[in-house]
Amino acid sequence: MGERNSCYIFLGPELGEKETALTELRKRIAVAALRESSSAAELTVYYAGETAIGEIVSNLQNGSLFADTRLFLIKNAEYIKKKDDIDLLASYMASPESNTTLVLISEENSIAKGLENAVPPSSKRVFYELSDQRKGEWVKTFFRHEGIKLGDEGILTILELVENNTEALRRECSRLVLFLDKDKEISPAEIEKWLSHTREESPFTLFTRIAGGDFSRSIESLRIMLAAKVDPISIFSGLLWCFKRLRDAVALEEAGINNDFEYRKIGITAPRARRDYSAAARLYNSAGVETCISLTAEYDYKIRLANNFPKYILLDEYMYKIILAGKKRG
């Protein structure tokens, strides 16, 4: 009964480890449900801001006609900000229904204190972004288990070309193993070649369009991600990471430095990434990069408050301003 009688809070940007923890929780609930009844656990998913908290709490309090055990997920929990909503949900969390588990999920590192204080510390986990060293170890272990030889340069290439969480790494690395030769060490060039053929649109492919100053293809990339249900917040997070790295590349460009050694010192080693950042550094000066960073924070905030306002309109406006911030060097 313990697992199914609880409320949890899962926070942080590390999507892979968070999803693993959620999967383990679901498995424990499923095993307990089948042990005590013949019905499987029922899963219900809500997105904060799309369904009223009063309606969610009402559904939590009412039993199900189809299952004795229930699991409720509330995603984007950082959007729960109104005091009445926080108080109502926290009140439920203080005394949850029997055989009902509730998990609040957010990519932020914190949510409303009233909600965080409604669970014991042991029921709240923050999945922080992995360090470069831990991500490198993750990639190395993944390919070792697949029997594929991968050197340090190959690992760096993958980290530069794939989004900054283990969920994206697992997805892209799983595709890569379908094409790589297990009889030899894989070169960075080969990794780059296959990733460019297999990877889906992401903030990193979008940055490639931005680096080329291509507004129409940038918009196309955004629309593809939205159609694939990619959270705009994760798009902003990935682009912010790229723009901060671009800040270092622009500093090199403005100092008249343009060689592989210096680019490696700022963490840019893959040939494709090198080309992207070099191209972007020719379009943007330091002021332009700071504008991009500020715009990313501004539109991240606007998207979070958008609710029913069409998100693609805000993203189109954002991308127009990002491309406009590019300044050709005379």
Task: Give an overview of the whole structure.
The chain has 3 domains: 3-126, P-loop containing nucleotide triphosphate hydrolases (Rossmann fold, 3-Layer(aba) Sandwich); 130-199, Helicase, Ruva Protein, domain 3 (Orthogonal Bundle), CATH 1.10.8; 202-330, Up-down Bundle (Zinc Finger, Delta Prime, domain 3). The protein is 58% helix and 8% strand. It has 15 helices and 5 strands. It has helices spanning 15-36, 53-61, 83-94, 113-116, 132-145, 152-161, 166-176, 188-198, 203-211, 215-227, 232-254, 260-265, 271-283, 286-305, 311-324; strands at 7-11, 42-47, 70-75, 100-105, 124-126. Helix 9 (203-211) crosses helix 13 (271-283). The protein is globular. The termini are far apart.
Summarize the model shown:
By secondary structure, the chain is α/β, with parallel strands linked by helices.
What's the oligomerization state? single chain
In CATH, the architecture of the largest domain is Up-down Bundle
The biggest beta sheet is recorded as: 5 strands, parallel
The value of Rg in angstroms is 22 Å
The number of distinct β-strands equals 5
Structural class category: alpha/beta
Counted up, domains total 3
State mean pLDDT (0 to 100 scale): 86
**Span between N and C termini?**
69 Å
User: Helix fraction?
Assistant: 55-70%
The poorly predicted ranges are 1-5
Give a topology summary.
Layout: E1 7-11, H1 15-36, E2 42-47, H2 53-61, E3 70-75, H3 83-94, E4 100-105, H4 113-116, E5 124-126, H5 132-145, H6 152-161, H7 166-176, H8 188-198, H9 203-211, H10 215-227, H11 232-254, H12 260-265, H13 271-283, H14 286-305, H15 311-324
Parallel strand pairs: 1-4, 1-5, 2-3, 3-4
Helix pairs in contact: 1-7, 2-3, 5-6, 5-7, 6-8, 9-10, 9-11, 9-13, 10-15, 11-13, 11-14, 14-15
